[in-house]
Amino acid sequence: MDAGRGKKSKPDAVQQCTIAMMKYTLLTRIVNELSPLLVQARISKIHQPEAELFVLRLRAGHENLRLLMSVKSGDHRLHLTTKEWLNPHQPPRFCQLLRSRITRIDRIHLVNEDRVIQVDCAGPKGVCFLVIEMLGSDGNMILTDEQMKIIDVLKRDSGEVSGRILQAGETYRYPDKKQAEHAVADMAYDLPEGFSSWSEYLEQHSTAASTGETQQGIQQRLRQAIIRQQKKINRRIHKIDQELGRQQDAHQYKMKGDLLLANLHQLKKGSVSVCLPNMFSADGEDVDIDLDARLSPQQNAQQYFKKYKKAARGVEHSQRRMEESRQELSWLEELLYQLDDMVDPADLETISAELEQAGLLKGAGDRHKKRTRQASAPQELVSPSGIKVLRGRNNRHNDLLSGQQLKGGDLWFHAYNCAGAHVLLKSSAVSAPPTEKDMTYAAAIAAGYSKARHDAKVEVMMAPAESVSRPKGARPGLVTVKKYKTLIVEPFRPE
Fold it and tell me: How would you write the chain as a 3-class SS string?
């Protein structure tokens, strides 16, 4: 095991300092590390996933980087990150401003001999400075022009309490230095063993690294919820199977009732049992039948018929529960595949909402209500003959394709007995019938976007529109297919 990731019985010097508050010397280390990496870095996108946390997507040389900047109370941070966050569909005010004014980073450095970082930037309106204050329990971001006149501020301040006016149009001035907070500045911090950079260290030890708000954290939480439910349903199926085993004896009750009725002339009230030849068996073996001595032979027969009807109803109920449980397992298997195959955070939100609606994420949805993205659309492709091919990215898409967009003349595709996407070949929209190459192409797409995508060959169902229907009350993405044929194809995923 790597020494830096093994036993850590004693906290190292860096851990002893408060990482969340980004002490001055530690901040010096990370700025010095970032400085050569960010010079002339192009900004491709700026995200604000949380009120006081920003992620800049950068192109630095031949590398794609993500720079995280947080001024959250108790979580002041600046470092490169590999994590993904869910972002609002509509960027907040300050994020929109940064997007409109910043396209390149020219320099990053500490200023005022304090925990204040200045990022020298360039954009459509010329040079500007992004000042990041990481002081005390509060942090802030200020965008100024080249003359240090404030363009806007993340957290505006009228100056009544702080003594500094942080408003658009005012001249920016640095906060007063608090020398006491620099008591740690003379300590020599070395990068702990096992870490290749301060960014890697800070990301692993940050207070927000375990909040579960990153895309990976949410993805793992959803996966755990699905797996828990799968285990629960498998236990339920085992119990139903045992019930069915007991209920399969229902025909024995009917047989005994029929034998009693056929032999009423031989029976008398008061008997506790009777042995009769089984006229329904080719061997004619004798059958022992228990009787209630208080009832007449006729009444005993009726009691067996009542037991038969009750058991028969139980069989129907158990079979229905078994089918529902298997359908739910199929639905969960689809969601698990989509989670493993998913790349778009909007699809992740769709899966999260689906699980919340099913009651499998109780109380978890409140975290994402303000993080809604614009819903993604089914993927559109074109077959060799120019026919539109549609592929569902999630169950909402699958329902849309198989329920609303599947028209007479279209063909529906899905990997056989395997979780995967619904795929439509929109042959109803063209005059000429689809060719074999068109159908093979659509089937290959269905195979490529299925759990069997890594297999050399995959069996794929192909059904006409009239054979595909969605059962009433079924889980999202589940359909019934009456008639279909299968194609054996090589999985294909277009770039």
Answer: CCHHHCCCCCCCHHHHCCHHHCCHHHHHHHHHHHHHHHCCEEEEEEEEEECCEEEEEEEECCEEEEEEEEEECCEEEEEECCCCECCCCCCCHHHHHHHHHCCEEEEEEEECCCCEEEEEEEECCEEEEEEEEEECCEEEEEEEECCCEEEEECCCECCCCCCCCECCCCECCCCCCCHHHHCCCCCCCCCCCCCCCHHHHHHHHCCCCCCCCEHHHHHHHHHHHHHHHHHHHHHHHHHHHHHHHHHCCHHHHHHHHHHHHHCHHHCCCCCCEEEEECCCCCCCCEEEEECCCCCCHHHHHHHHHHHHHHHHHHHHHHHHHHHHHHHHHHHHHHHHHHHHHCCCHHHHHHHHHHHHHCCCCCCCHHHHCCCCCCCCCCEEEECCCCCEEEECCCHHHHHHHHHHHCCCCCEEEEECCCCECCEEECHHHCCCCCCHHHHHHHHHHHHHCECCCCCCCEEEEEEEHHHEECCCCCCCCCCEECCCEEEEECCCCCC
Average pLDDT over residues 379-393: 95
pLDDT at 292: 92
pTM above 0.90, yes or no: no
> Which tops the pLDDT comparison, 190 or 303?
303
More confident residue, 223 or 460: 460
Comparing 391 with 21, the larger pLDDT belongs to: 391
Q: How confident is the model at residue 10 (pLDDT cuts 50, 70, 90)?
A: very low
Task: Using alpha carbons, select from 26, 27, 40 the residue that is nearest to residue 117.
Answer: 27
From CA 355, how far away is CA 226, in angstroms rounded? 8
Residue-wise pLDDT for 300-311, tens only, equals: 999 999 988 887
- 359 CB neighbour count, 10 Å cutoff: 8
Condensed to tens digits (0 to 9), the pLDDT of residues 209-254 reads: 444 456 777 788 888 899 999 999 999 999 888 888 776 677 788 8
> Which sign, positive or negative, has the C-alpha torsion 26, 30, 35, 38?
negative
Q: Which amino acid is at 225?
A: A
Mean pLDDT for the chain overall? 85
Residues 6+ positions from 32 with CB-CB distance below 8 Å:
none
Looking at the DSSP bridge assignments, the partners of residue 166 are: 157
